[in-house]
Amino acid sequence: MLVSILEPALGLIIWQLVIFGILFFLLAKFAWKPIMGALQEREASIEDALSLAAKTRQEITDLKAGNEQLIAEARAERDRVLKEAKEAGDAMIAQAKADAQKAGADEIEKARAAFNQERANAVAALRKETATLSLEIAEKVLRNQLSDRTAQENLVTSLLADAKLN
Amino acid sequence: MKKVYFSNIFAFLFLISSTLFAQEHHADSTAEHVTTEAISTETTAHAEGEGHGEEAEAFNPGKMMLEHIADEHEWHFATVGHTHYSIPLPCIVWNKGGLKLFSSNRFKDEHHENNASYEGLKLEEGKIIAEDGSFVLDLSITKNVASLLISLVLLVSIFFTIAKSYKERSGKAPKGLQSLFEPIIVFIRDEVAKQNIGEKHYKRFTPYLLTVFFFIWFNNMLGLLPGSANVTGNIAITLVLALIAFFVTNLNGKSTYWGHIFAMPGVPKWLLILLTPVEIIGVFMKPISLMIRLFANITAGHLILLSLIAIIFIFKSLGVAAIAVPFSVFMNLIEILVAFLQAFIFTVLTSTYIGSAVEEGHH
Fold this sequence. Notes:
The structure holds two protein chains of two kinds.
Chain A: H1 2-6, H2 10-145, H3 149-165
Chain B: H1 3-18, E1 22-23, H2 40-43, H3 52-58, H4 61-69, E2 74-80, E3 83-88, E4 90-95, E5 98-103, E6 117-118, E7 121-124, E8 127-130, E9 136-138, H5 143-168, H6 177-197, H7 202-224, H8 235-251, H9 255-262, H10 269-315, H11 318-358
Helix pairs in contact in B: 4-10, 5-7, 6-7, 6-11, 7-11, 8-10, 8-11, 10-11
Family (chain A): Belongs to the ATPase B chain family.
Coiled coil (chain A): 53-91
Organism (chain A): Arcicella aurantiaca
């Protein structure tokens, strides 16, 4: 009896070959093939989804970094514009100041020139007035002195002497 | 298989369901006709009390256990008293140039024991032999063949259903049977096939490995059912599985594989005289080890269970039963683990053999 257990029966070997063969054929063709295909398909789709998610995450990170950079740039731009405006304002004020100073100086100069002119005119007029006054005085004095005959003759003589000398 | 064990626990349930096949038989029991099946009368509390002493004398635990492990030409479930509960199976026999087809009931004598001869054929120790000693090719649907057919139907219907749900639920998460088997399928594919055969070749062998794994696992589990056949504990079955593994491995052998067998690289020439025969023996030892490992593990598990039950009938003591019954329940749980483990080991080893055969040279 023990031997019969260790002794493979030919009929059972044949049946097992046939049945296992049928089982393998059926399962391989109608079960494993679609199952493996579906599993692979699903794994591929999951992998795709995961890689897409990673890509999106990277994109968001990039976008955030881009935004930060943009903000920093805008801030720098603002600072620069403000600085420039301040500089321009300062320059404008300085310019205006300089212009005003120059204009003031010009005015003063003009006033001085006009004053000098006026003074010169006044001096000239005064001088002319003085000369006229002096002549009138001299005329009067001369008229007074030449009222007698002798004084007249003396004068003519002296004048003639002078003329001769020329 | 495990008729007594079965009757111990499930006798009542079975009695109700199987009366259809019952053959009422109340012949006088004679010493040589008392087989171990008769012992089940003792185990079932509601069995008739007659003939206790006689049957106990005839109890032969070794014979009982070997009968439970061996294949048979009828599907025998239980014997209660002198009533056999069994399904006759068709006998297909090639003898003297002719094919004979008949029911295994033809071998029954008037006592419903398998002692009758039919058309010059008779049953001897579970085998059909010709009375005149001529060659007999027994292609009968034995208990194991019937069990194989049941497992074939079971496996095909389960995995076809799963394949269908993969088609219907393409791209969606697995559900039901599909989600029960998917981790195992993926495990065999990734951790067994891909791991041992390699990225390049594993796809070719995955269907074979999956079939082997599920065939062994299902048949191991079916073998644990009370009253079922001991398929994977039959050496003819494991022989065929090992033979297939042998051919799959060696027909796919690459030059590196044969190079390692006939001229192990990096070994002094004189040593090859010793090493090459060892390697050639190894080629055959690998499938032989597969065959014996599965056969021995499953058979041993069944023998332990049967021994634990037989011990009750040897000592005929309730105290022994109180120890043996919980212990046999524990053994049955271990056997469920072994059923998976042996299927897994067979598949892993087959895949490593294939892996070594298809491996490309890397020296």
